[in-house]
Specification:
By secondary structure, the chain is of the alpha+beta class. It has a single domain, classed as Electron Transport, Fmn-binding Protein, Chain A (Pnp Oxidase, Chain A, Roll), CATH 2.30.110.10. 20% of the residues lie in helices and 45% in strands. The chain has helices at residues 3-19, 66-72, 85-93; strands at residues 23-24, 26-31, 37-42, 45-50, 53-60, 74-79, 105-108, 111-114, 119-131, 134-145, 152-155, 158-161. The chain has a 7-stranded antiparallel beta sheet. A 3-stranded antiparallel beta sheet has the order 1-11-12, with no helix packed on it. It is globular and about 55 Å long. The termini are far apart. 29% of the residues are buried.
């Protein structure tokens, strides 16, 4: 087997393995220089530290959100509720300028926030670094709002939900 065949096999196996990792789903949002809302659906985010409260995003360098997020220096992670799969799919498939047309949102301190998110985390960009096809962004948390609810999850190409036990 050639090196390129080995690489293709590794990429396929890695993709199959990662599809089995259930992830929370969020709409990551910011505003552009004109104040218009920008956002993408993401599963590639995680908490980083509690001291200081911070998180990591991994955004494809071709994503529509990347340039406005870096220019703004601030963003919100809107963690979606179990009943928001359609809103999430809209952010995946709709053109960037129409993504906010189908859900309730509001501006808060210059950031577009999803009204019915089960948690919203407002951050400022602390550090960025390129890795492969993505830019890894460290965000320091300025504010977290947690109305609560059941989270939307994504696994094996499908949306689902989990119910937290007592």
């Amino acid at each position: 087997m050639s090196q390129s065949d080995n690489q293709a096999a590794l990429e396929g196996d890695f993709r199959a393995a990662m599809r089995l990792l259930a992830s929370g789903v969020a709409l990551v949002t910011t505003s552009d220089a004109a104040g218009a809302p920008c956002g993408i659906a993401m599963t590639a985010f995680m908490s980083l530290s509690m001291d200081p409260p911070s998180l990591l995003l991994a955004i494809n360098r071709t994503a529509s959100l990347l340039a406005p997020l870096e220019a703004n220096g601030r963003f919100a992670v809107n963690i979606l509720a179990a009943d928001q799969a359609q809103a999430c799919q809209t952010f995946v498939t709709a053109p960037p300028d129409t993504r906010f047309d189908t859900l309730a949102w509001r501006m808060d301190d210059g950031l577009p926030l999803v009204e019915s998110a089960i948690a919203t985390i407002l951050c400022r960009v602390e550090h960025t670094a390129d890795f492969g096809s993505h830019r890894v962004i460290t965000g320091v948390v300025d504010k977290a709002v947690v109305p609560g609810g059941e989270p939307l999850v994504y696994v094996d190409g499908r949306y689902g939900q989990v119910t937290r036990g007592e």
